[in-house]
């Protein structure tokens, strides 16, 4: 008989595996699944090799691997029926088995590097296409609601304005106040060397009104409200609530996405303005304590040397920052795939991408306003 057979028997309460035929490399595929699937409930297993017609190194490796696996599970394996030559072969193969699993070497070389770069570039392109598709779908839904005002959901909009806007006021005020304090203190330390302490007012006003107030507010909103958007919609997708909404004839884009994005577009300029006022108050307080610049002098200097365009530039940026945060957060929520781990993963990606894109948009606005002389 040429082909090997693998027979699992119970002899007098002793689990026994009986091997027959030619257990050589040519025929190992016929019994490989039987070897890998063998499990034993008792404390020992007997391997009967007396009926083997032939055994080579490949067959010995299969037996030695089974023996090592079962002994690792606490099962004693007894080999019976093997002559001296086969016993020596099995011992040699068993001693040659690796003590631990090897780690596959990472491919290297120029072609591998080009392949990795190409794959990542294609992945970025696919993500951009998905984001643009989601943005287009959202805009189509927005224009559809504009043409059909009855489809608006004012209750959902007001609720999101409260969650994303009014509830964020304390942290925004505290953050901006401390930023104003830090700017004033650090500016005073540097300007005092040149006897130009009074210019700390210009430093605080321009940096907060033009850049830091709205930028840091957008970053806080991305971390606070953007992550909440991704987590809430992503959890609904995991629980198949979005599919249930579509079954009921409700568009998740209208019910979930639009109220959140519009709420951010409305509330972020308000939060930015509050942040500006809080930052100026913090800067004025520290200027009074550190430099002796009275509140009256601070306000006078602010009125005389601060152009209203500094405030306007920050307010112009706010709706764009809000749109970026809202769209990216809701888009990442739609990328959730079936598990709580996916919700956490996409929430992290949402915050990182939102903050990154907000900074990119801010840099583009800075270049644009510099080019037009503002």
How many E strands?
4
Number of helices: 12
Profile the largest sheet.
Answer: 4 strands, mixed
Low-pLDDT stretches: none
The number of domains is 2
CA-based shape: elongated
Task: Look at the structure and give the mean pLDDT.
Answer: 85
* SSE sequence, one letter per element: EEHEHEHHHHHHHHHH
The radius of gyration computed from the alpha-carbon positions, rounded to a whole number of angstroms, is 35 Å
Characterise the protein shown here.
This protein is an alpha/beta fold and 374 residues long. It folds into 2 domains: 5-96, STAS domain (Transcription Regulator spoIIAA, 2-Layer Sandwich); 153-371, no CATH class. Helices cover 70% and strands 9% of the residues. It is built from 12 helices and 4 strands; from the N terminus they run E-E-H-E-H-E-H-H-H-H-H-H-H-H-H-H. The protein has helices spanning 32-36, 57-72, 84-96, 110-147, 154-164, 169-191, 200-238, 241-247, 252-291, 295-305, 308-334, 340-371, and strands spanning 5-11, 14-23, 44-55, 76-80. A 4-stranded mixed beta sheet has the order 1-2-3-4, covered by helices on one side. Strand 1 and strand 2 form a beta hairpin. Helix 2 crosses helix 3 (84-96), helix 5 packs parallel to helix 9 (252-291) and helix 6 runs antiparallel to helix 7.
Search tags:
2 domains; alpha/beta; Transcription Regulator spoIIAA
Short description:
The protein is an alpha/beta fold. It has helices at residues 32-36, 57-72, 84-96, 110-147, 154-164, 169-191, 200-238, 241-247, 252-291, 295-305, 308-334, 340-371, and strands at residues 5-11, 14-23, 44-55, 76-80. It contains twelve helices and four strands, in the order E-E-H-E-H-E-H-H-H-H-H-H-H-H-H-H.
């Amino acid at each position: 008989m040429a082909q090997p057979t693998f027979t699992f028997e119970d002899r007098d309460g002793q689990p026994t595996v009986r091997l027959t035929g030619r257990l050589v490399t040519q025929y190992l595929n016929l019994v490989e699944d039987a070897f890998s699937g063998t499990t034993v409930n008792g404390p020992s297993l007997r391997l009967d090799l007396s009926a083997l017609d032939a055994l080579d190194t490949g067959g010995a490796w299969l037996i030695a691997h089974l023996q090592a696996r079962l002994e690792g599970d606490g099962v004693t394996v007894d080999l019976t029926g093997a002559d001296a030559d086969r016993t020596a072969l099995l011992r040699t193969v068993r001693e040659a088995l690796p003590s631990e699993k090897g780690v596959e070497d990472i491919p290297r070389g120029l072609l591998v590097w080009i392949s990795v770069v190409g794959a990542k570039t294609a992945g970025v392109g696919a993500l951009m296409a998905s984001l643009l598709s989601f943005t287009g779908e959202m805009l189509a839904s927005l224009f559809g609601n504009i043409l059909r005002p009855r489809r608006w959901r004012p209750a959902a909009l007001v609720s999101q304005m409260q969650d994303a806007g009014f509830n964020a006021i304390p942290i925004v005020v505290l953050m901006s106040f401390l930023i104003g304090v830090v700017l004033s203190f650090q500016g005073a330390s540097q300007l005092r060397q040149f006897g130009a302490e009074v210019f700390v007012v210009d430093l605080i006003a321009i940096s907060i009104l033009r850049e830091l107030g709205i930028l840091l507010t957008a970053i806080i909103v991305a971390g606070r409200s953007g992550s909440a958007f991704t987590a809430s919609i992503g959890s609904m997708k995991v629980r198949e609530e979005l599919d249930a909404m579509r079954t009921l004839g409700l568009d998740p884009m209208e019910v979930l996405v639009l109220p959140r994005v519009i709420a951010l577009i409305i509330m972020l300029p308000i939060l930015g303005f509050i942040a500006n006022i809080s930052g100026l108050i913090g800067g004025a307080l520290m200027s009074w304590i550190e430099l002796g610049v009275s509140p009256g002098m601070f306000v006078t200097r602010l009125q005389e040397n601060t152009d209203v365009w500094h405030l306007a530039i920050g307010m112009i940026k706010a709706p764009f920052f809000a749109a970026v945060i809202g769209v990216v957060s809701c888009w990442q929520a739609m990328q959730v795939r079936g598990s709580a781990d996916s919700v956490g993963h996409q929430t992290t990606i949402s915050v990182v991408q939102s903050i990154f894109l907000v900074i990119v948009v801010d840099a583009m606005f800075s270049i644009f306003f510099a080019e037009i002389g503002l």
